[in-house]
Amino acid sequence: MTAASPELSLECRAVHHGFGRKPVLFDINLRLRRGQFLGLVGPSGCGKSTLLRGIVGTHLPRQGQILIHSAASGNTLVPVVGPGRDRGIVYQHYSLFPFLTAQENVAIGLMLDQTSIPFRLFAWPKWRKLRKEHLTLAGEFLEKVRLGDALHLYPHELSGGMKQRVAIAQALIMKPEIILLDEPFGALDEGTREDLQKWMLTLYQDNTRARARGESPPYTLIIVTHELTEAIYVGDRMVGLSQHWDWRKEGYDACPGATVVYDKPCPVFEPQDAKDYQTFAVQREEVRRAAFDSKVLMDRNEFVTYWKETPG
Predict the structure, then answer these.
(1) Which helix or strand (DSSP H or E) is residue 48 part of?
(2) What is the CA 308 to chain-centroid distance, rounded?
(3) How far apart are CA 232 and CA 47, in angstroms?
(4) Where are the domains of the chain?
(5) Which of 22, 99, 171, 207 could form a disulfide with 88 if both were Cys (CB 3.0 to 4.6 A apart)?
(6) Which stretches of the chain are assigned E, i.e. beta strand?
(7) According to the model, what pLDDT value does residue 150 have?
(8) Which of 302, 265, 259, 223 is CA-nearest to residue 43?
(9) Rounded to whole angstroms, what are the CA distances from 90 to 17, 142, 246?
């Protein structure tokens, strides 16, 4: 295997995808830094979820490669050929087992990854010890998502925001190289959504503290959202996909698919910081022009400047 870059977590190289004769994604080139929180935005139908499913490994691209820069695999470059534990995903509609407590729901991934049915049936003393370790660790992650007092509650006893935090803890406990969040707060009320946005910034703080200690940041996220303000507030970088770009200039008779038309850094906020709506307005208008305006078709590289603005 090729050696990975310790700075990077994910790389998409010339990724193309479609369904039948309908092109969806065109020439997606993207490198994600380890510890980065990337907000992925774009008009409806531009392929944001398709790209996420490609990264997860359930819908592999027709052309191109998606690669994980895996520290867990000896700092190697691992091509995505299917689902794997180095990638976690949290959907808008959380899937919790109704017959398990919050703690048991968080621990179930470890059970499925580290044990088998014969082991649990015929090596009961070892399984009981391992089960206790799993539940203890699950409790620690529920503390991290501020649900330390809800360990023994069942899903029907939790609010929507609490259920979503349990789903996020399920992903975090597996310690994947990258976590993908597909509209994670879309079904929540505004107040709960804002609370969870601020909580996400505490994870970013954990990354900052890890870097200060000379350690690798533990959390790398891609957050798909239709809320531009959320992408700017929670992320340190925003990428816009769009089918509205000047594909005729590149010699195509019809749109070959959505591509990256916006890639710029975002301001970094602390959880206690007030939202800077003036900053939001400037960047919102820029990404709207680049990705959402179907009447003005622009060069797809005009707003793709992240690596020029943050080369180090």
Answers:
(1) helix 48-56
(2) 23
(3) 20
(4) 8-86+178-309, 96-175
(5) 171
(6) 8-19, 22-33, 37-41, 63-70, 76-79, 87-91, 178-182, 221-224, 237-242, 259-265, 303-304
(7) 94
(8) 259
(9) 22, 15, 33
What are the tokens at 217?
């940041």
Going by pLDDT thresholds of 50, 70 and 90, the confidence category of residue 5 is confident
Please enumerate in sequence order all residues whose Cβ is within 8 A of that of 274, keeping only pairs 6 or more positions apart, or say none. none
Residue 312 has pLDDT above 90, yes or no: no
Q: What is the DSSP letter of 243?
A: S
Secondary structure letter of residue 69 according to DSSP: E
Dist. CA 58–CA 74, nearest whole Å = 24
The Cα–Cα gap between 210 and 206 comes to 6
Report the residue count for the chain.
312
The pLDDT of 12-20, averaged and rounded, is 95
Q: What is the dihedral of CA 13, 18, 23, 26, to 10 degrees?
A: -10
First to last CA, the chain: 26
Query: What letter does residue 2 receive in the DSSP assignment?
Result: P
**If you classify domain 8-86+178-309 with CATH, what class do you get?**
alpha beta
CA 78/CA 128 separation, integer angstroms: 34
Structural contact between residues 50 and 17, judged by C-beta atoms closer than 8 angstroms: yes
What pLDDT, on the 0 to 100 scale, is given for residue 190?
85
